Amino acid sequence: MSRHALRRAALAGGWLGQYALDTMSERDVAAAVAAMRHEGEAAGRNAAQLRDLRVVVRVTGAADRIDVLSSRLGPLAEAGVTEVIVDVDWNDESGPARSLEKLRAPATRV
Predict the structure, then answer these.
(1) Which residue in 28, 55, 90, 98 has its CB near the most CB atoms, within 10 A?
(2) Section 4-27 average pLDDT
(3) How far is 36 from 53, CA to CA, in rounded Å?
(4) Residue 2: count of CB within 10 angstroms of its CB
């Protein structure tokens, strides 16, 4: 992501990034969040505003691999992610509820 895009995100109060589960790097997410905070500081945002940035990550390719994504929620939170958007398995009626339960458990520990 470009420096200018990260600056706009910092000024707007947040960022929505999209990653494929197979290629997502928590290190890259953390670097983007750090750069966004740096750009926000350079633009005059105060520390509280930068601490409260909304960082949303949409993860594709996880509908049938929610367990894998679930194990990565802690590292994503540590990287600065505040929300995660995922696809769920709609092939059976209980798919969304199963996904929610698998994702909720680690999220409550963070």
Answers:
(1) 55
(2) 92
(3) 9
(4) 8
* CA–centroid distance for 22 within its chain: 15
Q: What is the pLDDT of residue 51?
A: 87
- The helix (H) or strand (E) run that includes residue 77 is helix 73-79
End-to-end CA distance of the chain: 27
pLDDT category, 6, cuts 50, 70, 90? confident
Neighbours of 105 (CB within 10 A): 11
pLDDT above 70: percentage of residues in the chain? 95
pTM of the model: 0.86
Cα(45)–Cα(51) distance, rounded to whole angstroms? Answer: 10
Q: For residue 61, what is the DSSP state? A: S
Mean pLDDT across the chain: 90
Residue type at 25 in one-letter notation: S
- Retrieve residue 64's tokens: 């049938």
Alpha carbon distance 109, 14 (integer Å): 24
